[in-house]
């Protein structure tokens, strides 16, 4: 046998796999009747969503995209909202039947062969969709429109090719069960060495666990005067909030959503919700991850009526991410927010937030002072005039 043959290595194998990376987005259009009449070719856009490393958006044209149709149809398109060249994708658009009968209007490229393959979008703004998605007169008498609301579901499948090198062995590693075991430790109270009295309700815990998770508890137990104490009275917190704090410390998760939900509470009373009180407690005990979990939960609930009180809460609890989201929402929806009850509270009690919001709206200080007639809406209200030049009676507070 020659040396060359002796040195020959075993053959290797690889394979190229072409598949789609799929993602979906639900777009709810409220106030359909108010959107009509914006003009042919003008659209209402969904928020952007990411699939396959690219951003996408749904465009809904209440008066149609095609001038030749004389607003007889509504149009729906999916647009590439980020930079991309030759992005190949499959699409599905679904107009949801809101009667519960399940007779959705579906246009789909999935699970069917296409003569020329997936669609290719060559640049930002490229779109795929239907100019004549639905005849408008039929739509307005159909089960797709309910309470002046339309619901559109969109699925995008971005085509990707990867090289796969099969491995001889594969071992599936389960998700971490760390939180489950520590949760049992909390529930069974075994080895507990500290008791918290919260409004008369007793909570048993473990100093080492609390100290490992919170620098405040570490200082309290090992650097402060409470190190030898077996019971601590917490007088300024509700039992449900402290229970949620312990739930996070031991399990590293928020309590269940149904505990955080407050369906009967006015949107302006955000500070009275459990998640808001939990956010304040997270700030108090320096639980950064819990704070972000609460911020993310509150961010999903931001609306015109709730954003002012949420912004004030975020500022008070040093919730940086939530505060930034609220400021952006107010700047983008200023006219509607200004008519809400929470906006008056913001003006009267949070002057520092006014300044931050004004900078976002104006863009920079130079723009604020450059134009004599281009005064911001906030400035007009502040000196007693509304945006139409009418005098506004100053607000007076008594008592």
Keywords:
alpha+beta, 5-stranded antiparallel sheet, 17 helices, 399 residues, 13 strands, Potassium Channel Kv1.1, Chain A, BTB domain-containing protein, 35% helix, 3 domains, Serine Threonine Protein Phosphatase 5, Tetratricopeptide repeat, globular, Apoptosis, Tumor Necrosis Factor Receptor Associated Protein 2, Chain A
Account of the 3D structure:
The protein has 399 residues and is of the alpha+beta class. The chain folds into 3 domains: 17-162, Apoptosis, Tumor Necrosis Factor Receptor Associated Protein 2, Chain A (Sandwich); 177-253, 2-Layer Sandwich (Potassium Channel Kv1.1, Chain A); 258-391, Serine Threonine Protein Phosphatase 5, Tetratricopeptide repeat (Alpha Horseshoe). Helices cover 35% and strands 23% of the residues. It contains 17 helices and 13 strands. The protein has helices at residues 3-6, 32-35, 136-139, 178-188, 207-213, 215-223, 239-251, 257-260, 274-284, 288-299, 307-316, 320-332, 334-338, 341-349, 351-362, 365-370, 377-382; strands spanning 15-30, 44-45, 49-51, 54-61, 73-80, 87-95, 105-108, 119-121, 127-135, 149-164, 194-198, 201-205, 231-234. Strands 1, 6, 7, 8 and 10 form a 5-stranded antiparallel beta sheet that branches. Helix 10 (288-299) runs parallel beside helix 12 (320-332). The radius of gyration is 29 Å and the shape is globular. The relative contact order is 0.07. The model is unreliable at 364-399 (pLDDT under 50).
């Amino acid at each position: 046998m020659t040396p060359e043959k002796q040195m020959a290595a075993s053959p290797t194998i690889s394979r190229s796999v072409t598949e789609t990376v799929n993602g979906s987005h639900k777009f709810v259009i409220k106030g359909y009747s108010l959107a009509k009449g914006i003009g042919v070719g003008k659209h209402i856009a969904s928020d952007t969503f990411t699939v396959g490393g690219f951003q996408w958006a749904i465009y809904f044209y209440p008066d149609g995209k095609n001038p030749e149709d004389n607003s007889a149809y509504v149009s729906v398109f999916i647009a590439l909202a980020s930079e991309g060249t030759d992005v190949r994708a499959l699409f599905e658009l679904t107009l949801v039947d809101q009667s519960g009968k399940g007779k959705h209007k579906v246009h789909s490229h999935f699970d069917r062969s296409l003569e020329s393959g997936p669609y290719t979008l060559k640049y930002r703004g490229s779109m795929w969709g239907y100019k004549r998605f639905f005849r408008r007169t039929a739509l307005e008498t159909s089960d797709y429109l309910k309470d002046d609301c339309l619901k559109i579901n969109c699925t995008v499948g971005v085509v990707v090719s990867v090289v796969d090198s099969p491995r001889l062995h594969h071992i599936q590693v389960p998700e971490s069960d760390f939180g489950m075991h520590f949760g049992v430790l909390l529930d069974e109270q075994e080895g507990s060495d500290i008791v918290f009295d919260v409004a008369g309700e007793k909570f048993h815990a473990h100093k080492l666990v609390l100290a490992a998770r919170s620098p405040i508890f570490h200082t309290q137990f090992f650097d402060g005067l409470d190190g030898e104490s077996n019971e601590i009275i917490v007088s300024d917190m509700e039992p449900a909030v402290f229970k949620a704090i312990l739930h996070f410390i031991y399990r590293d998760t928020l309590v269940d959503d149904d505990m955080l939900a407050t369906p009967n509470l006015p949107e302006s009373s955000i500070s009275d919700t459990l998640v808001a009180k939990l956010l304040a407690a997270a700030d108090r005990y320096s639980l950064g991850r819990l704070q972000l979990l609460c911020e993310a939960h509150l961010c999903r609930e931001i609306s015109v009526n709730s954003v002012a009180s949420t912004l004030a809460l975020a500022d008070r609890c040093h919730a940086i991410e939530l505060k930034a989201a609220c400021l952006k929402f107010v700047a983008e929806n200023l006219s509607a927010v200004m008519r809400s009850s929470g906006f008056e509270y913001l003006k009267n009690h949070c002057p520092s937030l006014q300044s931050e919001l004004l900078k976002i709206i104006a863009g920079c200080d130079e723009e604020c002072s450059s134009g004599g007639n281009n005064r911001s809406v906030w400035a007009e209200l502040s000196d007693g005039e509304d945006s139409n030049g009418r005098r506004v009676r100053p607000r007076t507070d008594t008592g």
